[in-house]
Design brief:
Length: 102
């Protein structure tokens, strides 16, 4: 276990790590286990978010490229796309690292 203020970590030998992470290659001799760490399966999360959005009546459009955010007097009035202007009551900017391009 680590002796500093970080979360605990434990070295697991080959047989022990196989119990926690089945399917590892034969060359793996062990690994560190951080019991307080976690992770999210991004594919499962995306599917849950899609299902939740659809159940709330959110309309999702695939294959459309957003080219600009249409504004009037400092207010968003629509989203300019390669298929035309799309208007909505609410807008969500989820462009991540590409937000600057809008």
């Amino acid at each position: 276990m680590r002796t500093n203020d970080q979360s605990p970590a434990f070295w697991l030998d080959k047989s022990a790590i196989g119990l926690y992470q089945p399917g590892l290659g034969a060359d793996v001799i062990g690994g560190w286990w951080y019991p307080e760490d976690g992770q999210v399966d991004n594919r499962a999360l995306a599917q849950v978010l899609l299902t939740a959005a659809q159940s709330l009546g959110v309309e999702l459009k695939d294959g459309i490229k957003v080219e600009a955010i249409a504004q009037q007097q400092g207010q968003v009035i629509g989203v300019q796309t390669n298929t035309g202007l799309i208007r909505a009551a609410h807008y969500l900017l989820a462009a991540g690292a590409w937000a600057n391009e809008l």
